[in-house]
Design brief:
This protein is of the alpha+beta class. It is built from 14 helices and 22 strands. The protein is 33% helix and 27% strand. It has an eight-stranded antiparallel sheet with strand order 13-12-9-10-11-14-21-19, with helices on both faces. The structure holds ligand MV4.
């Protein structure tokens, strides 16, 4: 039985988890750093403990302090949210040894999918399409050159311990590849403590499409269809949507089935995301798997009607999924815009400071997931996301109109936000026609 949960996170996701717990009748223990002392959402928790100073490394990332708060708060489980400790297999292991349920996959499954090269190998084993590339790790320049000549330049060197675009570099020719291999290995060693790299052909102008899955501890694995997250800048997503536009039913089914095969092969449980890239040809390839709830999970919730945070908690409590695959439907279209305290006019520079005025949109099909309020001070220490505006409508066209209307109602004064770039995106014909790939933002508004 899970009667009390510690939320090892902050901001909108801490509040999102708090709300789910309250609806489930589960008590909550919040943690905060000195930078977040007095944040309004902390008052909704049954208890709240300070775990350190503002720097994340001295608070939200401190395993001993988070575990101490969990022990003192007498919780049965910890929800890590996203970021911070969410994909730290060591933390999941510590939770287990303290007999605290980690709300996520097992430490073993997390470590497995966290090794991007191992995940790629497993994908091949279960017939999930992967990009042409190396068979495992690349050790030498000679090996890399031979492979690159086999499948052609440009190629990408990726760190096994990387992910999300970290520890990744493109090589256009022999010379560049030679110097890149050693550099990439050294960089990966320094950044992740693991210098292993592998090679893939570079797929140009891809779309980013990911499949949401949820699996229980009884062998049931269900996918909740896909999200298109192509609208991003420097690996920071701006707009996400479900269903993925311009995805035919056959490709969708192949991708979702592939995701379920991979989840089964990895013995993966709880919520996870299988990331694919879709080439202009329509071919799709597995890229990596994310062992956490993601920022963009609400678009999936809107089209499926499934509360993913509640599902995570129920699965962690040992319950069976209450639906089979054939019960899950994709209904209508949902879009999310990430509202960040950043100045899109100044290269998306973070704009910490006090929110002096806030007017939040509402109405049919509008959801605003945010912890901020008038008088809230956006801290310079953490991610600059201050909210997510989500809409759900019968069709994509209506969802776009609804998002434009909702964005026009969202007034934030005191800090510059990404609202203006969202308005430009939503007015762009390339977005209306869904003719965008992951290079759209940089091509359209170069900085
Ligand atoms: C790629 C790719 C092209 N070819 N792999 C970037 C994030 C990481 N998850 C994987 N990424 C990519 N891998 C091959 N073989 C292009 C990207 C990529 C990308 C992928 C998804 C979303 C945005 C992206 C932006 C730039 C590059």
């Amino acid at each position: 039985m899970i009667k009390r949960i510690l939320i090892a996170n902050l901001g909108e996701i801490a509040l999102r988890i708090l709300r789910a717990c309250r609806e489930l009748g589960v008590e909550t223990v919040a943690v905060y750093s000195e930078a977040d002392r007095g944040a309004a959402y902390l008052n909704l928790a049954n208890e709240a403990y300070c775990v350190g100073t503002p720097k994340a490394g001295d608070s939200y990332l401190k395993i001993d302090r988070v575990i101490s708060a969990a022990e003192i708060g007498n919780v049965q489980a910890i929800h890590p949210g996203y970021g911070f400790l969410a994909e730290n297999a060591h933390f999941a292991e510590i939770c287990r040894s303290c007999e605290i349920e980690f709300i996520g996959p097992t430490a073993e499954a997390m470590a497995l999918v966290g090794d991007k090269n191992a995940a790629r190998r497993m994908a091949k084993q279960v017939n999930v399409p992967t990009v042409p590339g190396s068979e495992g790790a690349v050790e030498s320049e000679a090996e890399a050159l031979k492979l690159a000549h086999e499948f052609g330049f440009p190629v990408l060197i990726k760190a096994s311990a990387g992910g999300g675009g970290r520890g990744m570099r493109v090589a256009l020719n022999d010379l560049a590849l030679k110097s890149a291999i050693q550099q990439a290995q050294a960089e990966a060693q320094a950044a992740f403590g693991n210098g292993e790299v592998y090679l893939e052909k570079y797929v140009e102008h891809p779309r980013h499409v990911e499949v949401q899955v949820i699996a229980d501890n009884h062998g049931n694995v269900v996918h909740l269809f896909e999200r298109d997250c192509s609208m991003q800048r420097r690996h920071q997503k701006l707009v996400e949507e479900s269903p993925g536009p311009r995805l035919d039913a056959e490709t969708r089914k192949a991708m979702c089935d592939a995701a379920v095969r991979l989840v089964r092969a990895a013995n993966y449980t709880n919520a996870g995301t299988i990331e694919f890239i879709v080439a202009p040809s329509g071919e799709f390839y597995f890229i990596e798997m994310n062992a956490r709830i993601q920022v963009e999970h609400p678009v999936t919730e809107m089209v499926t009607g499934i509360d993913l945070i509640k599902a995570q908690i129920m699965v962690a409590a040992g319950e069976k999924l209450p639906y089979r695959q054939e019960d899950v439907r994709q209904r209508g279209a949902a879009i999310e815009c990430r509202i960040n305290a950043e100045d899109p006019e100044k290269n998306f520079r973070p704009t910490p400071g006090k929110i002096t005025q806030l007017r939040v949109p509402g109405g049919f099909g509008v959801r605003f997931d945010s912890h901020v309020h008038e008088g809230y001070v956006v801290s310079p220490y953490y991610d600059s996301m201050i909210g997510k505006l989500i809409v759900h409508q019968p069709t994509r066209r209506e969802a776009i109109a609804c998002m434009k209307r909702a964005l026009s109602e969202l007034h934030i004064e005191g800090v510059k936000t990404t609202i203006p770039i969202h308005q430009k995106i939503l007015d762009h014909t390339a977005f209306h026609e869904a003719r965008v790939d992951t290079t759209f933002i940089e091509r359209t508004w170069p900085t």
